[in-house]
Amino acid sequence: MSPRPTGPGPAGDDSSPWLVVGLGNPGPGYEKNRHNVGAMVVAELADRGGDRLSNHKARAQVATTRLGTGPGGRPGPAAILGVPRAYMNESGGPVKALLSFYSLRPSRLIVVHDELDIPFGVVRLKIGGGEGGHNGLRSISSSVGTRDYLRVRVGIGRPPGRMDPADYVLRDFSAAQRGDVTFLLADAADAVELLATEGLTAAQQRFHQP
Question: Is residue 13 situated within a structural domain?
Answer without folding.
Answer: no
